Amino acid sequence: MNLLRFTTAGSVDDGKSTLIGRLLYDSKSVFIDQMEAVEKTSLRKGLERIDFSLLTDGLKDEREQGITIDVAYRYFATPARKFIIADTPGHIQYTRNMVTGASTADAALILVDARHGVVEQTRRHSFLAGLLGIPNVMVCINKMDLVDFDQEAYDRIVVDYARVKAGAGLRHVAFLPISALLGDNVVDPSPNMPWYQGPTLLHHLETLEVERPEGAGDFRFPVQTVIRPHSDTHHDFRGYAGRVASGKIAIGDAVTAYPSGLTSAVASIVLGDMQLEEAHTGQSVVITLADDVDISRGDTLATGASPRMEQQPLATLCWLDNSPQRPGAKYVLRHGSAEARAMLANVEGVLDVEALTFEAATQPLTANSIARVQLKTTKPLVMDAYTQNRITGSFILVDETSGATVAAGMLS
Amino acid sequence: MYDHLDELEAEAMFIIREVYAQFENPGILFSGGKDSIVVSHLARKAFAPANLPFPLVHVDTGHNFPEAIAFRDAFVQTMKTRLIVGLVQDSIDRGSVQEETGMAANRNRLQTTTLLETIEAHQFDCLMGGARRDEEKARAKERFFSHRDDFGQWDPKNQRPELWNLFNGKKRPGEHFRVFPISNWTEMDVWHYIRREGIDLPELYFARPRQVIWRSNSWIPVSDFITLRPTEVPEEKMIRFRTLGDITITGGLASEATELDDVIREIETSRQTERGNREDDKRSENAMEDRKKEGYF
User: Fold this and answer.
1) How far is the CA of A94 from the CAs of A208, A319, A361, A368, in angstroms?
2) Contact state of B164 with A394 under an 8 Å Cβ cutoff
3) To probe the interface with A, which of B137, B164, B192 has the most A CB atoms within 10 Å?
């Protein structure tokens, strides 16, 4: 059983909460006391049937109280797979939350109301999914019950979406006609839409083959810390601890440490009490080398094509903090396990979220702004393009005074 | 085959190493419960072949299961690390908290003050804990690296966004962090991992004959710390505990699950059968427990 992380984007009205509630309920991931509370509330509100959106009503309460809307993580599992949902609100003012949720996602669920078709929000969510490099997108055309399960309504939206897909640079897109409210094609096939022969949403989620570019890429290993046991049994042990960001490595492979450029060969790979022959993307291991080279936190072990080393990289930046960007200010830049100081040398353009084009910046970046920028850093970043590697291609900016994470960026 | 447990393990080990690298004086909050045992196991694995580089920090209400304390002391030996105990009794004696009175008195709420006093006394800048996001709605939004102000408070409205694998432990003097390496694990993941790794647990997790009373819809163990009401008669039953906390408020389940496999099977099926079994008494017991899973946080 493996793990699939997906994100959902949408506003209150398009049935996102109902869909997630339905997935949790139909996959039996809901506790009895939660379900009872939902049944009671539905009854009290005089609803005809159980309102599944109440299962995820944390966000709703927040909305009513007018406090910050946030990313909530939810979990469910079927015999085939474990799922982590990053549930994010979809309004323009919460772009940063969607970016946060999307940063670790293998797939994105984008909901479209069958009555309204592709709207501005659909375009924006798809654009962000493309920008964040989410490998798979599932367009759920919801509320099919409200258009009499009409195939033409569905087909029209599928055709319309082709332009969105091209504009957003999405790789894999699947379409599903569903009714989250009634459960059609969510977990069970719809008796109302015999014209749809494809899988249900859950089946699709269970069988989706995720193509992460990192898996097939060159080996990258940002060193988190050096392990020196200083014990009698491991007197000379000197290992580099980290998580494989991309590619794989085996004993005997030649590796280069960056930024120093020193080379050596892998002597051993350790995971707890086990000695491994090789390690692949995603694994947290300890690597020892044949030679005594000077490597510490912030360095990267690599094979294959050299990572780039740049001090003035171009990047796409999402401003996260409520305080606007301070022009000329220096921030702490965290990239992998490395840290540098950085400033925004140039803001080349700011995304117009309605037109989805980058326009000249007229003011400092504010919360939810997405911009193309050029950075200037105090030392070279050992980096890859974000499109090739979401780990070595991403960074955050931290305000030195408050310690807040003020921006997140993807290297070009 | 790299499965979901491998991925959750790798993620947790990564987080724990970030704690080591980003903080000066971190520790692991250790309750003797399965979640903190798993976090300690992961931490040891993250630094092997070196020893666990963190002390274990126990906030002790004084109302303990004796088995849990024996387990804790043996565990500290096995892990070759230090144990730091913050006693709620000390906070009471110091006058920083007041003991609750009455039949329903317990020391659950008092733990928070003792925890903060322990952090202050030992100058911890980060404590790792075994809390998970599947435990309750508010926790569903808490970060891996959870920032605390100089009063030790968590501000859910002002959390730092966490993207990719980038964790920000920057803080001002007096502030600290709580870090939750198994945030993304569910209760089932924890149990499956315990089985896979062969992790030892206190006996309390397995059904044994125990002296209990029926109180607040739950089987409460008889101990020196509870006062029996006139109507309450202790009886011996096969009982296991799903969580371990203050002995005065930790309810047990009637169960025949004496082995780990039995416990896992029981937990796996409980969620599914519960829904169909409306009149089943066990239902409210589990519901009770699920609400009580908060532990230290």
Assistant:
1) 28, 11, 20, 7
2) yes
3) B164
Query: Which residue type sits at B68?
Result: A
CA distance B112 to chain A (A): 25
Q: CB–CB of B17 and A233 under 8 A? A: no
Q: Give the domain ranges of chain A.
A: 2-211, 215-302, 308-411
Cross-chain Cβ contact B3/A227 below 8 Å: no
Q: What is the pLDDT of residues A5-17, one digit of tens each?
A: 999 876 667 778 7
Can you tell me whether residue B13 is helix, strand or coil? helix
The alpha-carbon gap from A403 to the nearest alpha carbon of chain B, in Å, equals 5
Crossing angle, helix B187-197 and helix B260-276, to 10 degrees?
Answer: 160
Distance from A320 to chain B by nearest Cα, in Å?
A: 8
* Beta strands B26-29 and B56-60, pairing class: parallel
Q: With an 8 Å Cβ cutoff, are A2 and B4 in contact?
A: yes
Q: Which CATH number fits domain A215-302: 2.30.110.10, 2.60.120.460, 2.40.30.10, 3.40.1010.10?
A: 2.40.30.10
pTM over 0.90, yes/no: yes
Assigned CATH for A2-211: 3.40.50.300
- The pLDDT averaged over each successive group of 10 residues in chain B (297 residues) is 93 98 97 94 97 95 88 95 91 84 74 88 95 80 88 80 95 92 94 97 95 87 86 92 82 92 88 37 35 33
On whether ipTM exceeds 0.90, the answer is: yes
